[in-house]
Amino acid sequence: RENNSLNTNNYEKINRQISVKLAEFDKTTNIDYKKKLVKDSYVLIKKQNSSKDTKRLYEILTRLFQVSDWNSYLEASRELLNISKSKKDTLGLANAYRSIGNYYFKDKVLDSSFYYYTKAEKNYFLIKSYDDYTNILFKKGIVQFEINDFVSSEYTFSRAYYFTNKFNSSLK
Length: 172
Fold this sequence. Notes:
The structure is a single chain. The chain is mainly α. The chain has 8 helices and no strands. The radius of gyration is 18 Å and the shape is globular.
């Protein structure tokens, strides 16, 4: 029981440290300092060695994207994917697939980005996360357009437009 209490206290302490670093990240404009803060946060969450908080890992993941730390971004995306699979966390899976798709898209590995975007699309639709679903449809449509699959691209963009209007999406 005492060991469990120590683990909880340690988890909360690390979580507070991460919160402080992420809040500081959001306030500063210095890109090198942002990179340091997000890298420190990522190290802390890995040290925590806990699959409790996929939301926290995703917060760090999005900031790794913002500072273009691509190696850590892909590593964290795969970690989120593995944790989400083990927890059967559909939102975590969708976010991980989207993140991996983004990684491949930035390098123009379009077949891989399309594959991961499609997996994200299915998961977002399953949990009725229509803003995310619409966003991923737009990304998937861009991939289709870039490979000159204009008919599929038009269809995907039309679906994105439909869902944007139907569910009063924040993408309007």
